[in-house]
């Protein structure tokens, strides 16, 4: 994985988490319940945390492997974006239930990314 790809991915995810966070704080606050808003914010936080990790790893490119990169990238997409889809579809009255099982798969990939980072560090 090239440094340019990792830093670009991290930057896009970071930028989108700020946009989605502002969207949630200002526009969705009027539409979502407190519980829904908290779930939406969880997606935003996890997206930002992992964007920052990707950014750090991108600047220290000898630390990141393609496995770590893909676990974090796909994990963010499955975890955070499924939460966004579940919450927004629920607010519209048509909850996309098929997204429910996708969220834990994304979480598992995020955990796997951290595990691979640990293994990579100790090798």
UniProtKB/TrEMBL annotation:
Domain of life: Bacteria
InterPro entries: DUF423
Transmembrane segments: 6-25, 46-61, 67-87, 99-122
Membrane protein topology class: Multi-pass membrane protein
Keyword Iron included in the entry's annotation: no
Keywords: Membrane, Transmembrane, Transmembrane helix
Location(s), subcellular: Membrane
Signal peptide: none
Family note: Belongs to the UPF0382 family.
Family annotation (PANTHER family): TRANSMEMBRANE PROTEIN 256
Name of the protein in question: DUF423 domain-containing protein
């Amino acid at each position: 994985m090239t440094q340019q790809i990792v830093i670009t991915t991290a930057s896009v995810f970071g930028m989108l988490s700020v946009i989605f966070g502002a969207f949630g704080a200002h526009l969705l606050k009027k539409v979502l319940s407190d519980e829904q808003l908290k779930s939406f914010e969880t997606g935003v936080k996890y997206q930002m945390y992992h964007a920052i990790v990707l950014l750090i790893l991108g600047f220290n490119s000898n630390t990141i492997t393609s496995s770590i990169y893909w676990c974090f990238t796909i994990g963010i997409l499955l975890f955070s974006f499924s939460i966004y889809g579940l919450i927004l579809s629920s607010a519209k009255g048509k909850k996309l239930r098929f997204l429910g099982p996708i969220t834990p798969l994304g979480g598992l990939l995020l955990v796997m990314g951290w595990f691979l980072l640990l293994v990579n560090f100790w090798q």
